[in-house]
């Protein structure tokens, strides 16, 4: 292919997990089931929170936003992969790939920032309970969510604006099941120094700093819990933090796993399998973590399902 900026007519080829035709029905069925569980589970969480006035609190407001982000994140990646498997057509247009790159960065950023905001909410609730309603006002909660979306939008736009100036002049096969930014940069024949520098910088700012904030919040929470004299108070504090800690551990654990797999392994298949953990598995498991470990959510889900079945 002739060197130059060919972005107006480009098509990329998503190689996926395997080219074995016998595995395609299994992969299609597996990811279809996981996608449906993800959408249904997170949608039930959102509906339960909206329908139960007792859950109209900052903690569950942030949780409903997290569930919405998880639905959108999976929808960005899985349906296109299922269509490619079903039609046996692995091509994706340049603009569709660019859109997928944008949202595959945007929603993980939202996940990271929302988990940080939720940690701050738990910090205020446990360390400053008497001032909780004043500090975590509806106005502040709205501003925090707006800030997470604004940062995600601007950061992703910055990556895309740099990516649009790249030229591609060799085989455009992506050894992945979606358009992932670092894989796209490997196909470029123009200089990607600014792109790579931005990736490392933003990973530090939007990955490390939020994690430090979460760890600091929970260090203060642990200190406050140790000072509690009531065992009931300690148990309640642990129950409200347990689900969030589990989701944080799963999110950052899978992210670190993908990073180290990419750094150590030269097998595209291993990197793709590792990526499934944070793109598909984590959004699917989040509703189960919050519903199984939280009595309020379980009660709201039970009431919602009872009303639905009574109407049928």
From TrEMBL:
Alphabetized GO MF terms: G protein-coupled receptor activity; olfactory receptor activity
Subcellular location: Cell membrane; Membrane
InterPro entries the UniProt entry points to: GPCR_Rhodpsn (IPR000276), GPCR_Rhodpsn_7TM (IPR017452), Olfact_rcpt (IPR000725)
A Pfam family this chain is assigned to: 7tm_4
Keyword Cell membrane belongs to the record: yes
A single GO cellular-component term on record: plasma membrane
TM helices/strands, residue ranges: 26-49, 61-82, 102-120, 140-162, 198-216, 237-260, 272-292
Keywords: Cell membrane, G-protein coupled receptor, Membrane, Olfaction, Receptor, Sensory transduction, Transducer, Transmembrane, Transmembrane helix
Recorded topology in the membrane: Multi-pass membrane protein
Transferase recorded as keyword: no
Sequence ranges assigned to domain G-protein coupled receptors family 1 profile in this UniProt record: 41-290
Function of the protein: Putative odorant or sperm cell receptor.
Family per record: Belongs to the G-protein coupled receptor 1 family.
Protein name (database record): Olfactory receptor
Organism annotation: Vulpes vulpes (Red fox)
């Amino acid at each position: 292919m002739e060197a130059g900026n060919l972005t107006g007519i480009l098509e990329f080829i998503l190689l996926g997990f395997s080219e074995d035709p016998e595995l395609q029905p299994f992969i299609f069925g597996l990811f279809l089931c996981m996608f449906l569980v993800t959408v249904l589970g997170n949608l039930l969480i959102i509906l339960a929170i909206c329908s139960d006035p007792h859950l109209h609190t900052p903690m569950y407001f942030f949780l409903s936003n997290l569930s919405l982000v998880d639905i959108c994140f999976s929808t960005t990646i899985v349906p296109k992969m299922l269509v490619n498997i079903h039609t046996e057509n692995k091509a994706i247009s340049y603009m569709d790939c660019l859109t997928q790159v944008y949202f595959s960065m945007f929603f993980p950023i939202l996940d990271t920032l929302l988990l940080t905001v939720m940690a701050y909410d738990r910090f205020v609730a446990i360390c400053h309970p008497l001032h909780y309603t004043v500090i975590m006002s509806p106005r502040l909660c709205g501003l925090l969510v707006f800030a997470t979306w604004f940062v995600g939008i601007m950061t992703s736009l910055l990556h895309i604006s740099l990516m649009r100036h790249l030229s591609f002049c060799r085989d455009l096969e992506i050894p992945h099941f979606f358009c992932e930014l670092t894989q796209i940069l490997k196909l470029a024949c123009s200089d990607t120094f600014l792109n790579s520098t931005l990736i490392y910088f933003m990973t530090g700012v939007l990955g490390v700093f939020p994690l430090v904030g979460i760890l600091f919040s929970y260090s203060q929470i642990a200190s406050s819990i140790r000072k509690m004299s009531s065992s009931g108070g300690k148990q309640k504090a642990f129950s409200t933090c347990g689900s969030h800690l589990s989701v944080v551990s799963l999110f950052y654990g899978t992210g670190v796993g993908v990073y180290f797999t990419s750094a150590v392994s030269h097998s595209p298949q291993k990197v793709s399998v590792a990526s499934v953990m944070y793109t598909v598995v984590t959004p699917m498991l989040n509703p189960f973590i919050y519903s199984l470990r939280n009595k309020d959510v379980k009660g709201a889900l039970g009431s919602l399902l009872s009303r639905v079945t009574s109407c049928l």
